[in-house]
Amino acid sequence: MATTANVKMINLTIEGRAVSVPDGTSILEAAKVAGVLVPHYCYHPGLPVAGVCRMCLVEVEKAPKLAPSCATSVAEGQVVHVHSEKALEARKGVLEMLLINHPLDCPICDQAGECELQDYTFQEGRAEGRYRDPKRFNPVEDFGGDVVYVANRCILCTRCVRFMDDVAHDPVLTVAERGDRALIGKFEGQDLTHPWAGNVVDLCPVGALLSKDSLNKARAWEMDRAASVCPNCSQGCNMIVETRDNQVVRLRPRPNDAVNKYFMCDHGRLNYRWMNRADRVEEPLVRQAGVLAKTDWEIALRSAAALLAGKRAFVLASPNLSNEALFLLGKLVRRTGGSGSFRVNHGPEAPLPGVEDLALRSDRAANVRGAEMAGFRRSENPLSAMQAGDVLIVADEELGDVDAAAAAKAGAILVIGTTLPAWARHGANVVLPIANCVEEEGTFTNLRGRVQRFLQAKAAPGSARPSFFVLGDLLAAMGDGQGYWTASQAFDALVATQPSLAGMSYDTLALKGAASADAMAAGVGGGGART
Amino acid sequence: MGFPHRPHERETLVLSKHFGEHEAIGLDGWRKRGGYVALEKALRMTPAEIVNVVKESGLRGRGGAGFPTGVKWSFMKPGDGKPHYLCCNADESEPGTFKDREIMRWTPHALVEGCAIGAYAIGAEVAYVYIRGEYTEALDKMNAACREAYAAGILGTNAMGTGKTVHVYVHKGAGAYICGEETALMNSLEGRRGNPRIKPPFPAVAGLFGQPTTINNVETLVAVPHILNNGAEWYKTFGRPDNPRSTGTKLFSVCGNIQRPGNYEVTLGFPFKDFLYELCGGPLPGRNFKAIIPGGISVPIQTREEAESSPMDYEGFVANGTMLGSGGVIVIDDAQNLVKQIARAARFFAHESCAQCTQCREGTAWTTKILERIVAGDGTHEDLDTLLEISENMTGKTICVLSDSCATPVVSGIKKFRADFEALIKKKRVHMVPAQVA
Amino acid sequence: MSAPHGEIGEMHAPAHASHGDRGHHHVPYSPVFTGARRAELDELLTRYPTKMAALLPALWIVQEERGWVSDAAMAEVSDLLDLTPAYVKGVVTFYTMYHQHPVAKHFIQVCTTSPCNVCGAEDVVKSLLKHTGCGELGVMSPDGRYQVIEVECLGACGFNTPLMVNEKFIESVTPETVPELLASLG
């Protein structure tokens, strides 16, 4: 709702509240500004207006008919009633019509609890239907990809069709047939395999399009939710992590106009099983008499500090660590006169054509910019810069495919990670278990230099601790500072050393993040690495 | 011309004068009857002059809405740098209406000429005639007329030697009532599903292919050459002297339970009673008119008494609780099960709903199910209240008026013939012999 | 065949579902738009500012040529007009005159909407079902020659009962004239 000097502002009254919005705004969006939700189904801010569900009808004084608020622009002096008797009656009528052929199978429907048909029916619908005739039946259809279509629950809002047409630019869905025989159709052999097709499941306001992956996994009310950022590529799509009993069961996009609008790719949304992996390192380990033995944090940290005393540290960092962790690792490297590098997994880039600068990025890591900002060097052969005798700090890197001989050059090995790679069972001197990115708080910097917070969604296993906490304590054990109690303190320390982040704090970043100064200077397309 | 019957002396034959004359179908025969004189004249006028004459004549849209044609044309701004389009709505699908079909069957060149004049008047170089796919004969005749007109230099990039470009293309529909709705027709012409569009934007701003577009009914366009030839004053002489808002002649299609169904051309304001009894011969032997729908199935049903006191013009029908609509007169006599016919009308709309708006998609089908249940003898008294409430939910709340059109016969039927419904509800399970059970 | 999950990918791909084999019954699909038909489409394309606008005419050409519009034909048309097959399917299923399945030699569509209904259209339907041997609406007669369906308003309400046999429009049919009509079809 950006207001600039050359946009004419329109003043109107919605439910008795005066609002001023730019010319051309729909009544529905203006009502949001006034704090009034107009019930709707087919309207979605990320899609072209269809105006077909007729749910968002509102009464506009002096207009002869009720107006579809999604498709009606505001006008100066308009007086709009969203909850007048006339408008409520009309919406009650729509709800009744939507339910006559609906199977009313909420008890077995995945959407129950987060279903807009359910919500508005409870809010405004009739207590009892008057439909006495046979219901229409259509079989469930596999749409391919991750999507299954339950036609009987479909309200023909066409959000899915419009998403595939106008946002994904891959029109594989269509409204087929007409009248009450109409349903969403696709062409035999052409499936919903577009890398962003899974968004149709989120867009569907009812239980008609369901994710096969999350089918029957959890009821909406059984899940806990946390705001987060997708770690599966460098785009940094905002997301919600949903857990049930401390297990991540679903990832969904969280709207952010500056990054991902309302969307998230299938790679990101389905790539969550690693967040639940069971082979985690749960206790600090120290090598004693040739074997790694469980110990407590105090001993482990002291052992790690002793390992590093008077030695150069060479850090092999994961580009999926938070800015806070990478900053502290960088600090450790500089303190010991060492160096560090990281490598990035790759995959094919998959843009969402209808949204500017949104793609599944080929860099399949969340924080490449953060690693660069912390002074680490990107390399395909990350151990090449390690000098013989360096203490190798493996910071949540699985170290697969790394030349074992290169690792053997290390004077000692300190693992700070979520897992203990097989090779390190023999080589590691100290192992410090940390939380993964859905178990702790922190920030990532996306490929355009936008710094975004993620919150904790589940508890870390065993004695594992947040990465910023462990690294703060390690530095403290080396005589540098007092450690940090919260991630925001660690972030403040980072900001103090990074002019490009000046002015940022967890409060100012809030849940939408902010662009770093050099990202701003470089514009959307820019953003070179800095050291 | 009371086609297929001989003209009645009280008809005023302007548009239908040559119905039934095979010679009038071809270009030579049409030229002998004064064809293309008006176009030649029009191409030497400025578009604004043509628009003014049509405005002055009082010609109103003959498709159903009755919007003044000259005013509609004046919304187009020739010279705005955009391509303009004329669409001729020949999708005639309103049950009870079959006048455009006869115009195209017998006088295809009249429509080609009307389209050419209309296109030129609104600054368009292309006119599309959208003809419903079922009108195979009309399609053949119109295609042939266009070919003749191109061959004779009437159409093309040098229309009638004036250096002006006028194209008329025939576009064949494929079976969808809703494509008679102007924005649905445009979508269909563009190769889309025939879904009506939200207005605004109106067609004159962004219509066919997103460009300024005017859409006119067949009968409207074929009246234009006559107006240009004879002048606006001449056209205005047709009509009730006390109602200057309805001028000209109008083709009425008559069908149902009546002696002489067919097309009749009368001046607007003609007494409906005389029309039904004198021109059309009155009811079949031994029967009486029961209900009359004067403007296609979408307009409210009239009782015999209401119909007999209506003057046949836009205002006259409104004053008697209905509308002129498309001029498709459906007569139902006392031997019919009126409720069954209303159910049949509802089924028509349920079949034709485009499926966009909830109330229409679901409401037309629900209405049909209830009505068919009542006809089958399983109705209840609550059903009538439910029907009226559903109809209320279907009225004035959707993108186009198909939903309203379905509600209209239901509401007017229950209001005016409630006893028929109640009799069926009381009787329980006697009627309903489905057609397929031989 | 795309297979999102391994277990599905390991199954044998059903032959009819593979993209390369668009036709039914494994008969290779021969395109409609070659030679004169292609020229006809090219001429049509000059009439409109978009390729999409030629979709309904192109589908008519398919139906004239093949008698119905198959999935394979939809795919062909979508390629020619830069559309997707799903889009074309959405359009085809909207319009009732495009046949999505092969129909009988004489496809008879009888108007039974109210104006014709009050004049006895249902009796015409009954007579047709009897004399064609179809017995039921939509069902092909045992000899495969006839198929009778009810349609909504054909727009010839004053000439009841009107019907269409394929592309031929026939007016004023009565139950009594049905045998004569059928005989004339050959």
Question: What would your notes on this structure say?
Answer:
The complex is a heterotrimer of chains A (531), B (438) and C (186). Chain A is of the alpha+beta class and 531 residues long. An eight-stranded mixed sheet of chain A has the order 15-14-23-22-21-16-17-20. Chain A has a five-stranded mixed sheet with strand order 2-1-5-3-4, with helices on both faces. A three-stranded antiparallel sheet of chain A has the order 6-7-10. In chain A, strand 18 (350-351) and strand 19 (359-360) form a beta hairpin. Chain B has 438 residues and is α/β, with parallel strands linked by helices. Chain B has a five-stranded mixed sheet with strand order 6-5-11-8-9. In chain B, strands 3-2-1-4 form a four-stranded parallel sheet, sandwiched between helices. Chain C is built from eight helices and four strands; from the N terminus they run αααααβααβββα. Chain C has helices at 6-9, 35-45, 55-66, 71-80, 85-94, 114-117, 121-132, 178-185, and strands at 106-111, 146-151, 163-165, 168-170. The interface between B and C is large, with 59 and 52 residues.
Primary descriptors:
heterotrimer; B: 438 residues; 4-stranded parallel sheet; 42% helix; globular; C: 186 residues; alpha+beta; 4-stranded mixed sheet; 4 strands; 38% helix; elongated
Q: Looking across the biggest beta sheet of chain A, what order are the strands in?
A: 15-14-23-22-21-16-17-20
Largest interface: B-C, 59 and 52 residues
What overall form of chain C do the CA principal axes indicate?
elongated
Mean pLDDT of chain A: 94
Written as H for each helix and E for each strand, in order along the chain, the element string of chain C is HHHHHEHHEEEH
What do the pLDDT scores of chain C average to? 88
What is the C-alpha radius of gyration of chain A, as a whole number of Å?
Answer: 27 Å
End-to-end C-alpha gap of chain C? 46 Å
Which class do the helix and strand fractions of chain C yield?
alpha+beta
Give the biggest sheet of chain C: 4 strands, mixed
Annotate the secondary structure layout.
The complex is a heterotrimer of chains A (531), B (438) and C (186).
Chain A: E1 9-14, E2 17-22, H1 27-33, E3 57-60, E4 67-68, E5 79-81, H2 85-100, H3 116-124, E6 141-142, E7 147-149, H4 159-167, E8 173-176, E9 183-186, H5 199-203, E10 209-211, E11 224-229, E12 238-244, E13 247-253, H6 266-270, E14 285-288, E15 291-294, H7 297-308, E16 313-317, H8 323-336, E17 339-342, E18 350-351, E19 359-360, H9 368-373, E20 377-378, E21 391-395, H10 404-408, E22 412-417, H11 424-427, E23 430-433, E24 442-445, E25 450-454, H12 467-477, H13 487-497, H14 506-509, E26 514-515, H15 517-522
Parallel strand pairs in A: 1-5, 16-17, 16-21, 17-20, 21-22, 22-23
Antiparallel strand pairs in A: 1-2, 3-4, 3-5, 6-7, 7-10, 8-9, 11-12, 12-13, 14-15, 14-23, 18-19, 24-25, 25-26
Helix pairs in contact in A: 2-3, 7-12, 8-12, 8-13
Chain B: H1 27-32, H2 37-43, H3 47-57, H4 69-74, E1 84-90, H5 99-106, H6 108-121, E2 124-131, H7 136-151, E3 167-172, H8 182-189, E4 213-217, H9 218-230, H10 232-236, E5 249-256, E6 262-267, E7 270-271, H11 272-279, E8 289-293, E9 302-303, H12 304-308, E10 311-312, H13 314-319, E11 328-333, H14 338-352, H15 358-375, H16 381-393, H17 402-416, H18 418-427
Parallel strand pairs in B: 1-2, 1-4, 2-3, 5-11
Antiparallel strand pairs in B: 5-6, 7-10, 8-9, 8-11
Helix pairs in contact in B: 2-6, 2-9, 5-6, 5-7, 6-7, 6-9, 14-15, 14-17, 15-16, 15-17, 16-17, 17-18
Chain C: H1 6-9, H2 35-45, H3 55-66, H4 71-80, H5 85-94, E1 106-111, H6 114-117, H7 121-132, E2 146-151, E3 163-165, E4 168-170, H8 178-185
Parallel strand pairs in C: 1-2
Antiparallel strand pairs in C: 1-3, 3-4
